[in-house]
User: What shape does this take?
Amino acid sequence: MNILIIDAQGGGIGKQIISAVKKSYPSLTVTAIGTNSTATANMLKAGADHAATGENAVIVGCRKADLIIGPIGIVIADSLFGEVTPKMAAAVGQSMAKRLLIPINQCDNIVLGVTSISVHDMISHILEYLKSEINH
Assistant: This one.
């Protein structure tokens, strides 16, 4: 299974996800793509197998991924303080991969009905999903 993790800003959420995924499932291939070099570097430090930065990396990565994980803003053009370009959002949305979108209520995008949940708990949900997919 090829897992693509996309993050912006400092890559903090992506870093936590990669660390947890690689700890629980070290044989899975994890690619980290940051919208900027800081996000990419931090996710690479967390143990990503591959890493790249920028719009074209997102477009290419989305074609090769089986599962895409990231904050919900990765499917909204101009979100995450403008770091997600329209082409990036389209690539994520049009990908044949399944998407696990983390409902981060920031950057003027509010997901109604989502209860306040910690990033730690969201990562636990991601690991549960991976376990069910691997055992499926």
User: Anything to note?
Assistant: Helices lie at 12-24, 37-45, 55-64, 79-82, 86-94, 119-135. The two ends are 12 Å apart (CA to CA). The mean pLDDT is 92.
